[in-house]
Amino acid sequence: MAQITNIVRLSFRDYSHEWRMSSCFILALASVLAPMMILFGLKFGIVSTMVNELVENPVNREIRPIGSGRYNDAWIDALRNRQDVEFIVPKTRALAATIQLKSDRAKRILSTELLATAAGDPLLAGLSSVPQDYHQVILSHSAANKLNVKTGDRIDASLSRQFRGKRERVHLQLNVIDTAAASVTTRNVAFVNLELLIASELFKDGRAVQALGWHGNSDDSIERVFPSFRLYARSIHDVERLVADLEKEGARIKANVSEITTVKSIDQNLSVIYWVIACVGALGFAFSLGASLWANVDRKRKELSVLRLVGFKSGRIVMFPVLQSCYTALLGWLVAVLVYLAFEYLINFFLAPRLNLDRALCFLLTEHFLWALVLTLVIAIFAAIVGGIRAARIEPSDGLRDL
Q1: Are the C-beta atoms of residues 259 and 60 closer than 8 Å to each other?
Q2: CB atoms within 10 A of CB 2
Q3: At what angle are helices 257-299 and 19-56 packed, to 10 degrees?
Q4: How far apart are CA 323 and CA 329, in angstroms?
Q5: Which of 87, 182, 281, 306 is least crowded, fewest Cβ atoms below 10 Å from its Cβ?
């Protein structure tokens, strides 16, 4: 243990004594590591921004059926239970999913699209609640503006139909519990509970809705089948698999697969380019450091042989160049981090605004810095082994010849 302590102390004293040469090693490492960190920061920042934009916009995770199908409750529930599905809710026929809204603050009657919603709806992710019954509604930003209403207001909703030769209209009071963000949709949309959407279709089909007192034909014997649905994958990486599975079942599907594939391809191609540059740089630095340590051992052959002469074992002598290599790796990494942080600030402060980006163009996470340190230490240790083997072969008698 005493020998290890002494070799650590002696290697550091020797390293600090030859500070000019040590500084050259540190700057050489920083000159290789800093550009690689900047390249990786750009790659990570650009791709992360693109991926985040895809993920944060639910439209990119939406899977839309084309045309009309026949999807029952069991089929919908089976999809809802899949791990790669974040949200799914049925849709009725487009002609049945329209309602007329009127408020006391607006003169016009607004024809509005009905969309069913429920807890976990990605379009309403920022809202605290969703409609729980027939009498609650969340309006899109466009619909709320045209009706001149806000959260807490009451509006009149009406549906009309031609039934048994007569034109009928029913009214329903709705409570506006919230308003969706403007970015959700530019259309006039009323997000309602699924039961109200089904009730609207039943009424327009001439069937009774007992819960609301709307008369009509009985539908007890009719199985509920939906022509469409609104589906969102849990991640953009799940979209392609979901589309493939749905198409196997005969459904015609539309999704942003091409955009997602493009981003993933950019990520893979940039990763290959980065790692090629990183490997070339790492190999170049490893050979350079190994050669320098080899020359350093030859230059200090007399001093190292004296250490052998006073009783230091070969394994302890090997630690001498290895420890000095670790000092270079640690200090070079620190200088590279400081250089990277300076360039990161300059890039994000000056370049990102010119590209009309509201996100950082270049950034790294804490774990990236730690991984850079670990890899730098590993490369430095392997490079030092060359000099260490050379040092271990020095005989104690070599020092006596030079005295």
Answers
A1: yes
A2: 6
A3: 170
A4: 10
A5: 182
Supply 235's token pair. Answer: 């991640």
Which run of H or E residues covers position 310? none
Which residues, 6+ apart, have CB-to-CB distance to 121 below 8 Å? Answer: 87, 89, 130, 191
Side chain identity at residue 262, one-letter code: T
Instruction: Enumerate the H helices of 300-395 as residue ranges.
Output: 301-309, 314-346, 352-354, 366-392
| CA nearest neighbour of 189 among 127, 147, 132 | 147
* Distance in angstroms (rounded) separating the CA atoms of residues 230 and 116: 9
Around Cβ 255, how many Cβ atoms within 10 Å? 21
Computed on alpha carbons and rounded to an integer, the radius of gyration of the chain in Å comes to 35
- Determine the residue type at 296: N
Name the token pair of 328: 């270079």
State the Cα–Cα distance between residues 21 and 90, nearest whole angstrom: 72
Percent of the chain at pLDDT exceeding 90: 20
Task: Provide the H-helix boundaries in 57-208.
Answer: 73-80, 141-147, 194-204
How far apart, in whole angstroms, are the C-alpha atoms of residue 130 and residue 143?
A: 17
Segment 381-392 shows an average pLDDT of 68
Our CA angle for 194, 219, 157, nearest 5°, is 40
Percent pLDDT > 70 in the chain is 82
Going from the C-alpha of 232 to that of each of 60, 229, 355, the distances in angstroms are 9, 10, 31
DSSP string, 220-250: TTPPPEESEEEEEESSHHHHHHHHHHHHHTT
pLDDT of 363 reads 82
27: left (phi over 0), alpha (psi -120 to 50) or beta: alpha
CA 228 – CA 115 distance, rounded (Å): 12
Bridge-partner residues for 130, per DSSP? none
Rounded to an integer, what distance in angstroms lies between the CA atom of residue 269 and that of residue 368?
A: 19
Specify whether the CB–CB gap between 62 and 232 falls below 8 A. Answer: yes
Q: How far apart are CA 201 and CA 161, in angstroms?
A: 10
Q: Would you say 29 and 376 are in contact if contact means Cβ atoms under 8 Å apart?
A: yes
Q: Is 194 exposed, middle or buried (0-12, 13-18, 19+ CB in 10 A)?
A: middle
Question: Measured between alpha carbons, how far is 378 from 325 in angstroms, rounded to an integer?
Answer: 10
Mean pLDDT of the chain: 81
pTM for the structure as a whole: 0.66
- pLDDT at position 294 over 80: no
